[in-house]
Hints:
This protein is an alpha/beta fold. It is built from 23 helices and 30 strands. It has a 6-stranded mixed sheet. Strand 5, helix 8 and strand 6 form a beta-alpha-beta unit. Helix 5 (76-82) packs across helix 14 and helix 19 (493-502) crosses helix 20. The radius of gyration is 28 Å and the shape is globular. Bound molecules: beta-D-glucopyranose. Beta-D-glucopyranose binds at residues 103, 121, 179, 226, 305-306, 425.
Amino acid sequence: xxxxxxxxxxxxxxxxxxxxxxxxxxxxxxxxxxxxxxxxxxxxxxxxxxxxxxxxxxxxxxxxxxxxxxxxxxxxxxxxxxxxxxxxxxxxxxxxxxxxxxxxxxxxxxxxxxxxxxxxxxxxxxxxxxxxxxxxxxxxxxxxxxxxxxxxxxxxxxxxxxxxxxxxxxxxxxxxxxxxxxxxxxxxxxxxxxxxxxxxxxxxxxxxxxxxxxxxxxxxxxxxxxxxxxxxxxxxxxxxxxxxxxxxxxxxxxxxxxxxxxxxxxxxxxxxxxxxxxxxxxxxxxxxxxxxxxxxxxxxxxxxxxxxxxxxxxxxxxxxxxxxxxxxxxxxxxxxxxxxxxxxxxxxxxxxxxxxxxxxxxxxxxxxxxxxxxxxxxxxxxxxxxxxxxxxxxxxxxxxxxxxxxxxxxxxxxxxxxxxxxxxxxxxxxxxxxxxxxxxxxxxxxxxxxxxxxxxxxxxxxxxxxxxxxxxxxxxxxxxxxxxxxxxxxxxxxxxxxxxxxxxxxxxxxxxxxxxxxxxxxxxxxxxxxxxxxxxxxxxxxxxxxxxxxxxxxxxxxxxxxxxxxxxxxxxxxxxxxxxxxxxxxxxxxxxxxxxxxxxxxxxxxxxxxxxxxxxxxxxxxxxxxxxxxxxxxxxxxxxxxxxxxxxxxxxxxxxxxxxxxxxxxxxxxxxxxxxxxxxxxxxxxxxxxxxxxxxxxxxxxxxxxxxxxxxxxxxxxxxxxxxxxxxxxxxxxxxxxxxxxxxxxxxxxxxxxxxxxxxxxxxxxxxxxxxxxxxxxxxxxxxxxxxxxxxxxxxxxxxxxx
Length: 803
Ligand code: BGC
């Protein structure tokens, strides 16, 4: 530590530190025996020898009751180090962690029984190194479907199962805290990291997050919900100032976090890189203390995102308890205490929050991890979830499912180079990815071999060229691989012709990838299809149709692409998302009909990028190198915008087809006048010939009052069990006052305004199957919250009145 710290070494605490460190670290190893103070005889004699004023008994962290005395026994240096991680393992001179690929670790103080914890990424699965130097064994983790795909299941049970499996890998690989799930809102489809996030809707995002957290933490390891908050782009992510109204914050960008905190109490929250209304999120007391702790009652600890923020002392004060990955900020923190700029009690508070989590961790409890999670069982969960998350967007004349053993002409590079998930810290080092070609063959389909081989040769040739070499992520191999996109193989007319002759159906696979640190582009090859892709779709569809045969498209993508220009040319479209390592098997499950698709969109597919309400305000101002981004669309994000301003999307929020049909009946509410809670009923019947599940959505249209309201908002959802043909299920939903409330900035309160409320039961946000209404007789102030987080400048927000 530097000069300033030396000056304060006179304090008795620091004398103790100096004495102990003079003879090396005093190790007191027992922390499991239930003793208040554990000592070895060697430790005793050492302690006596080194320091006259050392306590003869060193407090040990053994349980919640011991935390205060342990904090009291810490030197200032130890305190400052405990609130800062120990560097980025494997980078910048920090040695690799005990579990290679873990991306962060906390400071351990063995003399007080405080172990060092390990953290590793998500969210699509645990990201650790698959191999270790000098070790024959492998350490692969399961790549599960991306979060956007999980949300499309509309099924919190399967999502919780995914969480259980993920958490089991976290535990069995020796990690304490999983840096997932992530739940930022899909504000704009070009956000390069949307694949890590669930939805444009905060209810879906919040419920999915709570399910995942509960699943992960059922293993006795921690989950971290991230990135808190309003981190909706990658362009200038570490400096961008997000300017957003209190109402949009509370109703859209904070809401999912609120739900997750209240329903799952995660062990940790990760604050985000961006500024929020001019203050970095990690230094934002209003966000981290007033809202997160005071309003919502969060009782875990907050860590920064990696290298986030500008001022460690402000981070401490704001209630950002832990700075990650830690780059020597401890000195500044200790100095600030010495100089009277930081109250030591703030440090103690933050440390207490960290230690309260430490005592729950496997490392603290001495768990002997196996490094052998049941990857086969988890692969099954992944495949099941992947198939459930697929969305059937179009299916003319029953093109899908394909018949068993059908002869298929499979087109598109992505059939071979199938994309399991996005890139960056959200990548997973899985043992394999089942390609769509392999998945279909394994399911018994006969793929045209000439075509398949010509794709394989074409891809192998291009990949041998420097330009297209698959390389390690720029952040190192632990962060997975970068696969530069190669141009779609051009198809000669006779190649298409001969394939059409020899096959029953054409299936075209289109792929896209994106990842951390860059946003997507509204360009060909990204949001728009390339000329080659357009030519492939047009050429293949025309040739098959001439022979009276059908063509399906499979989209292996992490976020919306433009579809209006080509969708009419094909008979069927299956949105497979990025389904994780079991991709090919899960696609085959749905194409074959082994699984009846029941996924629905949790994010809107607009007709054109210009229809996205934030298109003019993304990624900010100036567009090439923005300093700030103003959320002028306010609360009108996604379907809230499309439905209110009548902008027809290509495929709306909540949309998805099935191989069967469903009928809705008995749609009603149990009260005419709202009284604290209201029940909503609907009966869903499978009226088709195939067993299937249906995601049922409860929207509410609230009356305009002092506050204007979107045309409709999702307030509840549920999924039927698998219904056999002719079978019915009664669905019951409950809406309380908070779920109906809007945020009134003047009152800093959630209010339900009086008037007529219409409940709309939908198969999608546009396909409303029935309505029921009730009255709210008087305005209800549901909850008053802290008056914080107001923007520092006026925002010209979109409103029904101005439009
Ligand atoms: C990401 C986080 C991630 C962290 C550690 C950051 O760049 O934003 O989501 O958990 O790195 O890898």
